[in-house]
Each structure stands twice: as structure tokens, then as C-alpha cells.
Amino acid sequence: MDHRNTIDNTIHGAYRAARAGRRYGDDLVKVGSLWIRHRGRVDTRTLLIFGCQRSGTTALQHVFAADRNIVSFGELGLAFERRPYNHRLRGEKVVRRMTKLTGASMVVIKPLVESHRVVDLLDRLPDSRAVWMYRHYADVASSNLKRFGADNGRSNVTRALSGDPRDWRTRGVGDHAVEVLSGFDVDSLGDHDFAALFWWLRNQLFFDQQLVEEDRLRMCSYRDLVTEPQQTIDAMYRLAGVEPLRPGAGGLIHPSSIDKGKDIDLDPDVRELCETMWQLLEKSNEEYGLRHR
Fold first, then answer.
1. Residue 189 DSSP SS3
2. pLDDT tens string 180-196
3. CA angle at residue 43 from 231 to 293, to 5 degrees?
4. Where are the alpha helices (DSSP H) in 74-217?
């Protein structure tokens, strides 16, 4: 038995449990405060945030959490399964009931691991709208490995191709994506290559679901969010049909993380694949983005 791994997993599990407990407590305090103020007499809207991890979704959620009239459920919050901390949403009936009882003008939920079923969630959650966040692949790859460790990209891609229905990474992965990823010589790829391929895989879900045709969803560029935060955030409020937060909310967002991955070394074929996806995302954003549609 590898006792070192057992100890590490135990510590990691305890840390996640503590974080979840704090997040649940924070959510309950805010929901309780809103209920006392409004007694549920509010037409609550729902905004869902989708996209690839490390694309600015957490920073965006923190902005909404600063609005005293909004409840923003993080991935360890009340709207998500508490155990086994897999970031999956509770059942839609529970989420609908919870949303109705918050007394908030808007509930923001970030079900990133459910990005393969955007339309289904929009259909199941009344008065809901969605945002698909995207960020440059090099910056995401760099941020991913710094946050989760050097082997995280490789682990994500391997698990996505495993076919295990219990793993969220496999959900929505089509034959085309499997064929593309299986065509790479994994022995020749580095850590950043795998992280970039996982970025490609998660954003491929946007096109596999034909979300450019979905009127209830808008794209949002990370660059727009950090360079023009107030205008971008106000546009999200308008998308949801909610009065924008007071001026100054954009001050919670800073542009310092742009181009953080510009110097990473990528396999030429990986870079070509991701660059093609990047251009598709940029073109789609110009036509169907939050600030343009």
C-alpha cells in the first residue's frame, strides 16, 4: 500500500470538506438574509456559467457574489452535491426549489462539469440564461497546471478517453473528439500539451451542441471580461433580465492575467488544433457574443 498517497488523499479530502462546509455556511447566511428582506416575493432569474475550467469563471462568480441581491452558488455551494464533491449539480427539482426560495433577484450557478448539457439545463430551469466563457488556450493550459499540478492535463485527457460513465470528463465526448485526441502520440507530448488538448475538448462541446444557435446563451471572451469588466458584467445582467449592479463592480476584475501562457512550449500539431478552435471561438463571439449579438 502506498501510505504517502493514502495520507495525501485523506488530507485533500478533509480540506475539501472544510471548504465545502464554509461555502455551504456562507450560502445559507446570504439566502437567509435575502429571505428575511423579501420573503420570497421576488421574480428570481437564473444565470448559468459554462466553459472550460480556468477560463475566468470563478472571478466572474465573485463579482456576482458581491451583489447583495444575488446568490452565487460556487461548485462547493448549496446547489451542488455535497458528497462526493464532484462539482455536479443536485437534481433539477431541488435546484428549482432552492432558486425559488432564495429571495434573490438572480441566482448564479457555475456547473462547469455539466457543460455538455447546456440546452437541457436551460429547459429544466425556468427563467434561465447562460454564458459560455472562453479564454486563450495557452493561458488556460498555464493556469491549469499552476493551479492543479503538472500532471493534471494528462490526467484529464486520459480520463476523458476512458469511457467511464461515472467520470464527468467523458460526458458529451463525441466520436470526432475521441478520434482527434487518439491521433496524437501521447509519449511525445508534454504537460502543457495535454492541458491545451483538454481546453480543446471542453470548448468542442460548444460546437457539438450548436450553441451559436441558442438564443438563451451568449459567449463571453475572458479578454472582454478583464479589459472592459463593467460593460461586460452589465451585459450579463441584461441577458438575465436583472438590473445591473452599481457602477464599480468591474473594479473586482483585473487584466493582469492576460497572456500569462504566451511563453509555454506546445507541440506544433497541438498548437495548430487549438489555434483553429481559438479562431472559431473568436469568430463566433464576434457574431453571437455577449457584447455583439
1. coil
2. 999 999 899 999 999 99
3. 35
4. 92-101, 118-124, 137-148, 152-160, 175-182, 191-208
Please report, for residues 24, 75, 91, the alpha-carbon distance to residue 131 in angstroms, rounded to integers and kept in the order given: 24, 16, 21
3-state secondary structure of 89: strand
**Whole-angstrom Cα distance, residue 188 to residue 193?**
10
Q: Are 24 and 36 in contact (CB under 8 A)?
A: no
Mean pLDDT throughout 111-127?
A: 94
| 3-class DSSP assignment, residue 139 | helix
Q: Tell me the pLDDT of the chain averaged across its residues.
A: 83
How does pLDDT run across 221-236, given as a tens digit for each residue?
999 998 888 889 999 9
74: burial class by Cβ within 10 Å (0-12, 13-18, 19+)?
buried
pLDDT at residue number 50: 96
Domain boundaries, the chain: 3-288
pLDDT at 92 over 90: no
Element holding 273 (H helix, E strand): helix 268-288
State the CB neighbour count (10 A cutoff) for residue 206. Answer: 24
Q: Is the dihedral of CA 115, 119, 124, 129 positive or negative?
A: positive
**The one-letter amino acid at 224:** D
pLDDT at 203: 98
Q: Cα separations (Å) of 257 from 52, 59, 226, 274?
A: 16, 11, 9, 19
* Of 165, 119, 128, 121, the residue nearest 45 (C-alpha): 128
| CATH code given to domain 3-288 | 3.40.50
